[in-house]
Write a structure and sequence with these properties.
The protein is mainly beta. About 10% of the residues lie in helices and about 45% in strands. A four-stranded antiparallel β-sheet has the order 1-10-8-7, with no helix packed on it. It starts with a strand and ends with a helix.
């Protein structure tokens, strides 16, 4: 049993906070088997709303997975009480935004997908934050959405 914290560092401009929303929020991870070291090739997601029973009635976890290489059954659980928003005052600093309880699985990569609250009265924005995100991208996306409506 191991607890692993996921830390985020971002530059927030005109954004008040980044946060996961709801029990159906998807934490996209690549996971490594603690027994043989096999790393998942595809992104896998965990959601608070998902619960899978463990073998032998030993409780439940967010995800239970059998390793394709060594056939070991591993599990990982989101610790809901550890989920924290990344606020404007955290900008440019590392902050733990969630912790996972790991039994044989270890997160090795994270694909950020969050909801952002803006300083202005514009709507909340959802997206993947893999590349620099600035107002010009946001405005052009909003204009495109208005044109399609």
């Amino acid at each position: 049993l191991q607890k692993i914290g996921l830390q985020l560092k971002a530059t927030l401009e005109n954004i008040t906070k980044l946060l996961p929303v709801g029990k159906d929020f998807r934490w996209y991870l690549k996971l490594k088997c603690g027994n043989c070291g096999e790393v998942s090739q595809k992104w896998q997601y965990l959601r608070l709303m998902d619960t899978v029973p463990l073998k032998g009635g030993r409780g439940s976890a967010t995800m239970v997975q059998k390793c394709k290489l060594c056939s070991r059954e591993n599990s990982i659980d989101i610790l809901s009480h550890t989920i924290k928003p990344y606020n404007a005052e955290d900008s440019e600093k590392f902050k733990t935004i969630v912790e996972f309880e790991c039994r044989g699985l270890e997160p090795v990569d994270f694909q950020p997908q969050v909801m952002a609250d803006r300083e202005e009265s514009e709507p909340r924005l959802y997206g993947i934050l893999q590349e620099p995100w600035n107002d010009s991208r946001v405005k052009s996306r909003n204009e495109k959405l208005k044109q399609e409506s």
